[in-house]
Fold this protein.
Amino acid sequence: MFKYFRAELTLLGAKIAVATLTALAATVANVTLAADANAPAPAAPAANAPAAPPSNLDDRIQDLKGDVIRLNRDLMVLEEELLFPANTQVAVFLSMDVGELFGLNSVQVKLDDKEVANYLYTAGEVQALHRGGVQRIYLGNLRAGEHQLVAFFVGQGPHERDYRRGATVKFDKSVDPKYIELQIKDSTGRLQPEFEVKIWQ
């Protein structure tokens, strides 16, 4: 209990640091804009005059923005490690190889008869999957032991017919993270889409 409370305090402190830096960067930027607006127009530079170096204030703003980006990235990693520790973590991914025989509309994922994901795809997201993209559709926690995953795929099949298919897999969750991939493939021999579930060790 104390360990969990300490982790929550660490996460809260990191969020406060990010919020403080973001506010500070915005304040400095607003001050710079106000100063630029009230400043007189600069005189025309003399011929062959050397370019003026960037102001220290601009450098500080850029440094603050970089700190905010880095802190946000570190915060996301920290939050994921705290909420989804390795000994209980399970992640489900979705991929497509070609997609000519199946037009994906939505995917529903159930773990142990409980719905954990229900995603509706846009045309742009489907195109990204066709180009080799992989989507993490679910990230959560499971206790060690045997579990069952069921995925339902909805879309248009051959000849633009409404298509709904399911895929099921049973797996054992150990103390290591578990990664599961939902694969949508074209079977050119059968002229039908295929839906497979792969467990990555």
Q: What stands out?
A: The chain has three helices and eight strands. The CA atoms of residues 111 and 149 lie 5 Å apart. Residues 2-38 form the longest helix (37 residues). The radius of gyration is 26 Å.
